[in-house]
DNA sequence: ACCTGAACACCGTTCAAGT
DNA sequence: ACCTGAACACCGTTCAAGT
């Protein structure tokens, strides 16, 4: 009865488990998805999950990775469009998984795997923003300007904003970045 | 042996439990603090906690409330100082409890009590920012400008930024708000 | 009203055993 | 190498019983 040594290649099986995890994590949330229920959905014993993933956090990271890959791939076709439009697209694309975004942040302090992933995620998006700008930002303020843009993006994903405010937020962030990129450094007073 | 009907007034006892919860939540984190351990620290049975708080989330909210009250009280003495300085103060004051901030966000989708608290927290800080500005922001962009400032603040608390970037971020956000408050609405192109 | 000791239904994870 | 059934040590929460 137990189907051991199934002929399914490892990568394929892993992908099956990942697909089940992705669906449950997004629909029901990370906390509400127990390993037992997830295993049942995937048609395996809870134990089996641990053959393919170290723990639940690594499963979460793998799901996030898969999603981010797809996101960046889709985003590639948006190059050339205004930055505000790109931001708007990203926000609407990430809103459905806002719970996962919040969960990742909550687990940064708990899991090494999540912390590492989170750092990489920010590096990716900071690079993405930097690339889109018409000119280089004055070096002293660059990290802060990019950080503000990234945090605004994260905030817009994880918080409830109406459509109009979301549009304005994209415009505000894009304006700010363009301004910082095109204007020379002005020494702040005081 | 069991000390029932202790003569300690309800509010005082509640405060004791709250103090224990605050310490453990901050030092060890919310998830790492089990109700059992928390009860032991406070010198009671786990059960007793439920006499004073509906559940663990309500305990979390009560801790956050206590902290926010203290924060706003201390902040009151900063009125009149530059906005960037106030931001910097808030960030450094909130960084030690960054894990709690992240936890709150993660539980917004899980707990009604947390969701309600979170909404109130944002309302408070949006009002605080609005009050500090020299002039009214053009009404159409105001919610977005305030949202960007709030999200930047949250991001700076929950993410690792070096001191210099943190300073610059405060300056960027303050600049942005002042600019939006003093300049008339400029219709965006396109 | 307040508090206990004991239980309940779970949870993520691991282990001995099978093929 | 892969997978199972059964267990382990917990978890948040509740309940009957005491004062």
Automatic annotation (TrEMBL), chains A, B:
GO process annotations (BP): negative regulation of DNA-templated transcription
UniProt keywords, alphabetically: DNA-binding, Transcription, Transcription regulation
SUPFAM superfamilies: Homeodomain-like
MF (Gene Ontology): DNA-binding transcription factor activity; transcription cis-regulatory region binding
PROSITE patterns in UniProt: HTH_TETR_2
DNA-binding region, residue range(s): 34-53
Name the UniProt record assigns to this protein: TetR family transcriptional regulator
């Amino acid at each position: 009865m137990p189907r051991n040594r199934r002929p399914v290649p490892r990568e394929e099986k892993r992908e099956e488990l990942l697909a089940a995890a992705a669906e449950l994590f997004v629909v029901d949330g990370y906390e509400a998805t127990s390993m037992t229920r997830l295993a049942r959905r995937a048609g395996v014993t809870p134990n089996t999950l641990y053959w393919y993933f170290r723990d639940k956090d690594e499963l979460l990271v793998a799901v996030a990775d898969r999603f981010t890959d797809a996101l960046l791939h889709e985003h590639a076709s948006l190059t050339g469009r205004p930055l505000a439009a790109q931001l708007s697209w990203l926000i609407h694309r990430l809103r459905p998984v806002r719970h996962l975004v919040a969960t990742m942040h909550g687990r940064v302090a708990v899991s090494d795997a999540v912390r590492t992933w989170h750092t990489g995620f920010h590096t990716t998006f900071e690079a993405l923003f930097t690339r889109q700008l018409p000119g280089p930002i004055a070096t002293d303020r660059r990290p802060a300007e990019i950080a503000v843009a990234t945090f605004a993006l994260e905030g817009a994903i994880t918080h409830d904003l109406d459509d109009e405010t979301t549009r304005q937020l994209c415009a505000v962030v894009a304006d700010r970045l363009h301004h910082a990129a095109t204007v020379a450094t002005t020494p702040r007073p005081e």
